[in-house]
Amino acid sequence: MVERESMPCDVVIVGGGPAGLSxxxxxxxxxxxxxxIVLEKGSEIGAHILSGAVVDPKALDELLPEWREMGCPMAQxxxxxxxxxxxxxxxxxxxxxxxxxxxxSNHGCYTGSLGNLTRWLAEQAETLGVMVFPGxxxxxxxxxxxxxxxxxxxxxxxxxxxxxxxxxxxxxxEIHAKYTxxxxxxxxxxxKRMKAKYDLEANCQPQVYGLGIKxxxxxxxxxxxxxxVIHTQGWPLTESDSWGGGFxxxxxxxxxxxxxxxxxxxxxxxxxxxxxxxxxxxxxAIREYLEGGxxxxxxxxxxxxxxxxxxxxxxxxxxxxxxxxAGFVNVPRIKGSxxxxxxxxxxxxxxxxxxxxxxxxTELSDYDAAVRSSWIATELKLVQNAQPAVAKYGGxxxxxxxxxxxxxxxxxxxxxxxxxxxxxxxxxxxxDLYPKIAYPKPDGVITFDRLTNVAYSYTNHxxxxxxxxxxxxxxxxKVSELGVFGGPSARYxxxxxxxxxxxxxxxxxxxxxxxxxxxxxxTCDIKDxxxxxxxxTPEGGGGPNYPNM
Length: 549
What we know:
By secondary structure, the chain is an alpha+beta fold. The protein is built from 15 helices and 23 strands. Strands 1, 2, 7, 8, 9, 12, 18 and 19 form an eight-stranded mixed β-sheet that branches. Strands 5-4-14-15-16-13-17 form a seven-stranded mixed β-sheet. Strands 3-6 form a two-stranded antiparallel sheet. Helix 1 (18-30) runs parallel beside helix 3 (114-127), helix 1 runs parallel beside helix 7 and helix 7 packs antiparallel against helix 8 (365-372). The longest helix is centred in the middle third of the chain and has 20 residues, at 337-356. It starts with 5 loop residues before the first strand and ends in a 14-residue tail after the last strand.
């Protein structure tokens, strides 16, 4: 048994993103005497935050009403111009705003770096007395004798790849708490364990995901239109019977954030979401903005796309799920920060009331009920059939049906139907049933190879540490992932982590994991067809270090 130091607190929050920090701020607003700890696995707050982002300020207005006058970086660029394009290979068609439901409007929203917003929120939290600890991943959960969550244990430092302790070894710390909030974002490894232990998904649809890949560019000032927001659908994913879409946001300082989301339920195992993104950038309507510009940053992250029917039970003894750990993304709007923040605020209200009543480690059923009667629920119910409609019927018919369903729900004449989801990994087809895809070589100007782009994520992991990408059965990986599905891990990973090589001695296929490249997107944990890869937290501070993303 390892001897560990311990620290008691009232509330420990796992994850320093918008949801976790909003919960921390709200707790201190309600009771300044509460001891609140935020643990963040990134080297600094915001280091692992990746989003477009166009932010609906609804939750921010509730949490910090004066945020626009408080130096918040998100206030720099209000949305001024909104476009939605359907792309063919060389052309585009603009969808008229008149046919789109009102909720699709970006009027009153802001575009900017979600990472910088998160850094600013951390400053507000620390001013209120919240203890924020970046570089400290929560690696394990503690339970009391009644099976309630009693806190977390941070990751050990200085462990060698073979499990031995190096000279700088430091055991993780036990953080004992009356309540623990899990705000890990999409597909958090501790969240997965909580869902399984307390059977939180017994009465909901499975969560499904998209892979969002993003670049930040400095562009020609003559082409920059501050506040312009462009969304696209259609090409190139139409050529592989996949679906998703792109975005291009004109943000502050002459920069554009551009990215591409591929739904991870695609069937053709030869699809490479990264390469589809690079192809998309070559579309004339997108390329014209990038020519003469310079890429300055790169990253990738999985996104919850299940919507309202995939929201699990949110509370369990001693803990609760908030933000993207629970899955509150509005897929048609491509927005989830406001709903994530609101869920953190509602959880804080529930916890503050429970502690004031002398309770601890109880099940916060009033938090679950509050979310389900809040504007989070109202908003997500309006779009609950959009994702599954497109997934089932394809981009053209599915989009039309999704639009009709959203309009009917907006007009309160929606059908009482909640479409179902299928787990992404179950949708992957056999390699021999699909044609291989010949992707064009990168030109080094507009398009880039993966490893070159990974360098622009500023990813770093300590050398000689246990691999945080755990393969449960290497033989299964060879026989099935490679033999049946054609080794899709080499294509779905946006960081070049996985390779199938030939062993020089035996001539047999060899599965190589370049874990040092990992940008913590969680795609492998989601898309592996046998669920044979488990993502766990690496040593603290490891992973990407996103600037201004």
